[in-house]
Design a protein that fits this description.
heterodimer; A: 336 residues; alpha/beta; Rossmann fold; 2 domains; 11 helices; 46% helix; B: 314 residues; mainly alpha; ABC transporter involved in vitamin B12 uptake, BtuC; two-stranded antiparallel sheet
Chain lengths: 336, 314
């Protein structure tokens, strides 16, 4: 008899507790009022350079645009739909993320929630009514980095260590090569892929192999390459974010992808209630501030003035729209 | 073609080969101890991951590399003992427990990493192991810069192979361990504790897997990232089959794998052979599988591998 009573008491307690909980959960939603709720769903941990740039921009939006921001990382394809749906059901108005591995899943879920804005990193186009896309269109800054590499190499051998031969990476590598060749006809470029987005020990070995063969400026598309360059005292070009801190004497500069213009624009649209499915890719171009060349830091003084001038001139032409960096998404190959 | 070969086979190539082989040697030799005792430790991949994290974090806060190594090894031992609890004491399926340990450890490593470091805007870094040239020996032409101009952990890996062969084949402890893996009932009748030896095998396997993980995050690279192991633990499991459960042959397998990996990185970058880069990346695995298929025909698998020992059973 006693046991039964205890059970009943517990049941009541649990129910009461649940009421309190739901109250607690619901409260901030009401209190938040007009604050836009943004969620991000990432396939990898936020350390992944690509994903990190989206995350950083959204954190900035949290501070400056007053949005409410939550995210889920390491969401594998099998869970992708569930996590997206959870956010949509919870009343998030904007859901962002990278959809490369879950392209179809993301699009299918988006269709089920036409009132929610979905903006995903994707290699293909937007889908009406509510699925917008963006991508890392930072080939212009990669081209400028290539110019510096072409000018700074003494052996006329430069190299790239990249993750996988996908369009997003290919166009950067090809732009880098094109930049180097435009300023130095004699330059030859090696390209290695490590077949993974995250295996720094392997990337480092690939870089060391290139350096052994005379490469003296190396484009670190993935993590692990700058460390090799530093160890062997050759120069490096970073990628995605400003990584000069890792090795100030090694890293000259590098293309930086800034998602801020994209995020700012998209949040503005959602806030105004005028969001439509679009390709937001152009917000990652240099002209919109979506990508730029990382500051030279220590190299401000070390980089020869003529090289700086050359780059500055080309940069102005790109910004003015009078010079266009070709988008070449074919698989890059080693020259020698 | 000759030009390319002479371009590839330089001192740097062989030095890279030894560097790539080092974590594989640690993992393989460790795994050998537990498999010779009759327990397949599929937890190795996760243990390497967790140990890479604990080793890195310890060094990050204490600035002592060797303390980090110790932490990595202790992590490995603890995970190994947990594996022992499941497979030796409880006699559960070794496959399932091993995969479980890998899932648990890789989950934990990421969980603790977030707990300790939060979401850093740039990767936390340590000052990693530096190359330690051995006095005199490193001056020998060719061999010197290849073998004796490496990380301290590389020397340990090179020493561990003969030492473990000696322990396994020439000490009473090694005889007991092997007997436990071949015929636990006979060992039990002779008064050898099967349980104790299997736990010991797992502890050694854990410690060495920990070393392998720490090598990757503390010598080869200077940060812990989630892809730092990238399947190298699974390679170790294959190398043991390739090496027919023998330390010398398994180490040879590790060198073969590393040889082809170092080679493919150079061939791929050389741009002379026009095949998709994936073919190059596949090469070490393909050759290991081919080698395994050829060699493992006459392999003698420890007879009691995968079989839990219950002393009451007849």
């Amino acid at each position: 008899m006693k046991k039964f009573k205890l059970g009943r008491v517990m049941l009541i307690a649990v129910i009461a507790f649940m009421f309190v909980l739901t109250g607690a959960v619901l409260q901030p939603t009401f209190a938040a009022g007009k604050k836009i709720k943004v969620a991000a769903v990432f396939e990898t941990p936020i350390e992944e350079p690509w994903v990190n740039q989206i995350h950083v921009a959204l954190l900035r939006a949290q501070k400056e645009l007053g949005i409410e921001y939550t995210w889920s990382e390491s969401v594998k394809s099998a869970d992708f739909a569930r996590v997206m749906r959870e956010y949509a059901e919870k009343g998030y108005q904007l859901i962002m993320g990278d959809a490369f591995g879950a392209e179809r899943i993301a699009r299918r879920v988006a269709k089920a929630y036409p009132k929610v804005a979905f903006v995903f990193g994707s290699g293909i186009g937007p889908a009406e009514p509510n699925f917008g896309v963006f991508d890392n269109w930072i080939h212009e800054a990669a081209y400028l980095s290539g110019m510096i590499a072409g000018k700074m190499t003494k052996t006329n051998k430069i190299g790239v260590v990249a993750g996988m031969a996908i369009p997003e990476i290919n166009r950067l590598v090809n732009a880098f090569k094109a930049g180097a060749k435009d300023v130095n006809k004699k330059v030859k470029c090696k390209v290695s892929f490590i077949g993974s987005f995250f295996d720094p020990p392997k990337a480092k070995e690939a870089a060391l192999a290139q350096i052994e063969d005379g490469v003296d400026v190396i484009y670190a598309e993935r993590f692990g390459v700058i460390e090799a360059a530093k160890e062997k005292h050759v120069l490096a070009i970073s990628n995605m974010s400003d990584q000069a801190k890792l090795a100030p004497d090694t890293v000259i500069t590098g293309p930086v992808w800034d998602m801020w213009p994209t995020v700012k624009y998209v949040v503005g649209l959602v806030k105004a209630g005028v969001f439509t499915a679009q390709d937001f890719g152009s917000f990652s171009y240099m002209a919109k501030g979506g990508c730029y060349l990382a500051p030279y830091h220590k190299w401000e003084k070390k980089l020869p003035a003529d090289v700086k001038q050359l780059v500055e001139k080309r940069k102005k032409e790109i910004l003015a729209g009078t010079f266009r960096v070709d988008i070449d998404e074919s698989m890059p190959k080693s020259d020698y | 073609m000759n030009e390319i070969l002479s371009q590839i086979f330089q001192i740097g190539f062989f030095a890279a080969l030894i560097r790539i082989a080092t974590p594989l040697i640690f993992g393989t030799i460790g795994e050998l101890f537990t498999e010779r005792a009759g327990v397949l430790n599929l937890g190795i991949e996760g243990i390497m991951m967790l140990a890479a994290m604990t080793g890195f974090s310890t060094t990050y806060f204490t600035h002592s590399l060797w303390l980090g190594i110790l932490a990595a090894m202790v992590t490995g031992v603890l995970a190994g003992l947990l594996m022992g609890l499941l497979t030796v004491s409880l006699g559960l399926s070794q496959h399932v427990s091993g995969i479980g340990i890998t899932l648990l450890c890789s989950g934990l490593s990421f969980f603790f990493y977030r707990l300790i470091f939060g979401q850093p805007s740039s990767l936390p870094k340590i000052k990693p192991f530096e190359v330690v040239p051995v006095p005199l020996l490193s001056k020998i032409p060719i061999i010197g810069p290849i073998v004796f101009d490496q990380f301290a952990l590389v020397y340990i890996a090179l020493i561990i192979v003969p030492v473990s062969a000696w322990i396994l084949y020439s000490t009473p402890w090694g005889l007991n361990l092997r007997t436990v893996g071949e015929n636990p009932r006979a060992a039990f009748s002779a008064g050898v504790s099967v349980t104790a030896y299997r736990y010991q095998g797992l502890a050694i396997a854990g410690a060495l897997a920990g070393l392998a993980g720490a090598f990757l995050s503390m010598a080869q690279y200077d940060a812990y990232t989630f892809g730092v192991i990238s399947g190298r633990g699974w390679v170790c499991i294959a190398l043991i089959v390739f090496g027919q459960w023998d330390p010398w042959k398994s180490a040879a397998g590790a060198f073969l794998f590393a040889f082809i990996d170092a080679l493919q990185l150079r061939l791929q970058a050389s741009g002379v052979i026009h095949v998709p880069y994936q073919v190059f990346l596949m090469m070490p695995f393909v050759f290991t599988i081919i080698g395994m298929a050829l060699v493992s025909r006459n392999a003698r698998v420890p007879a009691a591998l995968l079989k839990p020992f219950r002393k009451e059973e007849r």
